[in-house]
Amino acid sequence: MEISIHQSWKEKLQDEFEASYFVELSDYISKEYSRFECYPPKQNIFSAFNLCHFDSVKVVIIGQDPYHGVHQANGLCFSVGDDVAHPPSLRNIFKEIESDLGMPYPVSGNLEHLAKEGVLLLNATLTVRAREAGSHQNKGWEKFTDNVIKTISNEKEGVVFLLWGGYAKKKIKLIDTTKHNVLTSGHPSPLSANRGYWFGNKHFSKTNKILNSNNKKEIKW
Prior knowledge:
Blueprint (H helix, E strand, L loop, with lengths): L6 H12 L1 H16 L2 E2 L7 H5 L7 E5 L24 H14 L10 H5 L2 E5 L4 E2 L11 H15 L4 E5 H5 L11 E5 L4 H4 L9 H11 L8
Parallel strand pairs: 2-3, 2-5, 5-6
Antiparallel strand pairs: 1-4
C-alpha cells in the first residue's frame, strides 16, 4: 500500500509507518486491493489527512468503517461523493445541522469542505472490502488511528472531539480531557436517532461556541 499522506502528518506518524504492525497491515491491504474490489479508491485512503493537515485540526469526528456500497466511500467518515445518494446517517447529520444552525439541507453529501476547514473526519478503519461491512477490522487500522488520536491529544490543545455512538465514545480514554473538549451523543444512524439519542444534541453550534471561546475560527457546517 502506497502511503500518500500530507507531510504534516508524515512527520508526526513516521514511527507508525515503520512499525511492524503497519508494515503487515500495508501488505495485507495491498493484497486485498489486488484481489477484491475495496473502498475507498486507493488514492483516497488517506484523504482525511490530506485535506485536513495536522496544524489545521480544530475538530475530530470519529467514525467506525468506510461505507461498503458502490461509489460511496471517499476517505472521509460519513461523507460521500457529490452525486451519490446520502446514506441514512449522513441524512440525520444534515437534519441536525439544519435544525441546530438554521442552515438549508445540502445538495451534496461530500464533506471535503469541512475537512479543509479543520475537521478531521476519521474512520477507525480506513478501508473495507466491497459489500462486506467490517471486513478490514482488526487488521491494524484501529491501532494506527488510535495513535493518531493520541498524537492529536498530546501535541495540540483545545481540539473539539465529537464522539457519536458507543464505539466512538470508547475513544475518550485516548484523549486528555483537561486540555481538549469532548461532546458525546448517540450515533446519527436511524436506529439510534429514532430512539431520541441523536436529534437535538446541538453539537454543531456547541462546537462553534467552544472554538469562539478559544479564539478560533468557527466551522461553516
